[in-house]
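Supplementary notes for students who missed Thursday's class. We covered one full example, reproduced here. Read the sequence, then the structure, then the short commentary at the end.
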Amino acid sequence: MNADASHADSGADAPSQGGGTGRLVLLTTSHRVAPGLLSWPAWQTLRTAGRVLCADPGHPQLPYLREAGIEVEEASLSARELVDHCVAGDRTAVVLTSAAGESALTDGLARLAGSGRETMPDLELLPGSYDLPGARLLDLVQVMDRIRAECPWSSIRTHHDLAKYGLEEAYEMVEAIEEGDRAALREELGDVLLQVVFHARIAQDDPDEPFSLDDVAGGIVEKLIHRHPHVFGDAAATTPDDVKAHWLRTKAVEKRRESVTDGVPPAQPALALAGKLASRARTAGIEAEPAGEGIGYDLLALAVRAEAEGTDPETALRAAARTYRDAIRAAEGLPPAGRPSEEDESADDELFDD
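Structure (token representation):
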């Protein structure tokens, strides 16, 4: 926001409005928002205040306030001093708070106000900038940058080193979902997110083809917008089937694959792989019968049948295996290890394909 405004003459404090006892404003800002981008009420208060104080000489807002013509005193006054200053001359003072807050000042103000014997100025906590949704991701990026630079273990990791952890964290996330454990799910989602941020940070150091987390996020944003023309464009979609049709149509144009099996990772668990291949074939209207005999082909036939009936074979077998595990524990005289999933996961998961 443009702040081409001059600060009131520091020798003449502007009177506060209404109360007649002055005004003391604690101005907070978010380090997750670019310095200088303050709300209009914050700029108005700064422009009209008799004194603006900041105890932190390295506060990121200081250069921008001074560029706007606002004189800032690098000083730390006590609650007693600030109250006396504001009340004595019906003045307005602004304290630009640090990232750690001003606990000593706020505690002192609370004691004075709570005594019932003090004439107090109007006290106001004024947010100068707010965190937007997702702002804490900036903290994660900064923390990962520092870890990558300073941690002896993290600084030498490669994509290959971390690959196994990505699988482990994904499975632990699925386990939390199936157990219905909300606290565990929140933690495991964080662990999965860490893998994404860590890999993106490693990618920044590649000498030949570097990319960053912004590139990763930009790519998925572009993909989501392109594949949701019914949300971001003029296309119409009133049912889940309409959405799926849009998704498959745009994906086919993007990928230009020779086979419907292209893009199905063969390293995934065998039952999940069989179900995915069956889903691709069914969606494309392809009928293909594998030639062979033995238990592997029997399992494949069951996976294809499960997918055709709308059941994810991997999820179904895992739920059955959990029940089997509990039966074994019961035979051992032990309680069940966890609550089996009560919901079958649909095999119609093409919307989560690449």
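Commentary. Residues 1-19, 340-348 have pLDDT under 50 and may be disordered. The radius of gyration is 30 Å. If anything here is unclear, bring it to office hours.
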